[in-house]
Structures are given as C-alpha cells and as structure tokens.
Amino acid sequence: MKSKITFAVAFLLFTYNFSQAQGKLNRAKEDLSGSSSNSNSSSRSSWSDDADGNDGIGYFDSVFVEIAYQATLGILFGEMQPRYFFEYPYSDGLHGEYAFPGEDVPLKRSQLIISNTFFASGKEFYGNDLKLNFRFIPIFGVEASHLHFFEQDPKVELGVSSFMLNYYRVREQNVTAYWGVGITHVGNGVDDTGFAYQVGVDVYLNKPISLGASWKQSLINDSSIDEFKLLARYHMKRLSLHGGFHNYKLGSVSINAMGFGVDYRF
Prior knowledge:
Elements: H1 2-22, H2 24-32, H3 37-53, H4 59-77, E1 84-86, E2 98-99, E3 107-108, E4 111-121, E5 125-137, E6 140-151, E7 156-171, E8 175-186, E9 192-206, E10 209-220, E11 223-236, E12 239-250, E13 253-265
Antiparallel strand pairs: 1-2, 1-3, 4-5, 4-13, 5-6, 6-7, 7-8, 8-9, 9-10, 10-11, 11-12, 12-13
C-alpha cells in the first residue's frame, strides 16, 4: 500500500514539474495548433442531416427570422447620423472624440491613433501590444495590431497579428462604442489564421480622464485567443498615457497582467 502511495505522489510531482518546465507559451501553442477537421466535418454532417429532415421553414418561423434579422441590424448599426472628430479629447471642453456638425471649433473628418502597450505578469512573463487605428470616416475604420508574448523560463515567444474592420456604433460626445470583425494570424510555430471579432467602449468622464473596456476573440483551429482589457487614460492634448488590467486566454492558458502605454493622435 505504501509503495502505491509513494508511486502516485512521485507521478504527480513528475507531471507537475514537466508542466512547469514546458511553460505557458508552449502549452498555448499546443492548444492553438490542434486540428479541427474532425469536429467540423461531424458538425457539417449533423447539420446536413437536420436540414434533410426538414423540407422547409414554416410561415411563422420565417416571420420570426425576419423580425430577428431586422432587430439585429438595428442593434448593430443604428442610425448613421453625421459626426466629425474633435482635434483630440477635451480640446474644447468636457467631450470625447466625436463632435456634432456645426461645432464652432476645429474639426477633423478622419483620425489616426498609434498606441503601444507593455504588460507583465510576474517576473517570467511579459509582452507588448502595438496598434494602429485609422478611422477614414467617423463611422468606419481599420485597425492593425501585433501582440507579442515573451516567456523567460523556458525562453519562448508567441506573435499574434490582427487586421480588423471596425464599425463605430455609438458616436456621442462622451461615449465611443464599436464592434469589429477581421482576421488573426498566429506565428512562432502555430502558423495559422482564423476569424476574429471584437467589441469595445470608451467613456470620457471628466478632463483629463477616460475609461475603456474591450473584448476580442480570435478563433484558431479548435481553440481561441481571448483578450480582455480594462484601461484608464490620462489625456494631454494629442498624447495620452494609459494603464490597467489585461487578461489573455491562449487556448487553455490564462494570463493576468498589468500594462501601461502611450497613445498619439494625428
């Protein structure tokens, strides 16, 4: 009996030490590299079987689908009322990014923001997030970003690059809210690309402070990369400093980190 207990304890210790030696990023790479062909094919097969078993959609079902479709479009897009950009948040009073037509101050039709954020989780794990956000009109914009993770022991890196098309659903003087869709590519051994979506909101409370929250998910094979951020910004004309909480989920690996960085508006 004692030998069995000793063997079990030794096995658990070995498993724990191997997991620790493997490192977070190596485990994340394994999760993100998993094949999804079997599950996708089975899902398609079951969907086809269900479709074959139903020759058509009933009248009330089609009406319900139409109502849901219209309601969803209303929620997602809303009314596309004209807006402009202030030169920068709080440039002319207690306001955020967006200005109504007729404001008697300098206004812009487009806006470019470059930001960089450094984050760390303990002494062994850190990363950097470089982002370029260009709104060519007040309602639409593109966003390119590169998120890079570093681990000290063992020394491993993971790079995540995204390209998103954003729609700015709420464009009020003190609130900006958006959603976006795009693609994400994961390198450093994973070397795969998947669909990505995100939502976010920024609230301009009082000069010179604003608060922001964002969520982004990138679907890679049978797994995902999830990013959640809660940030506070201190605005100094076109320049702003930001800092706050970051949570990243790379497959089954969850990382909590604190970050700080800088934004500049052109």
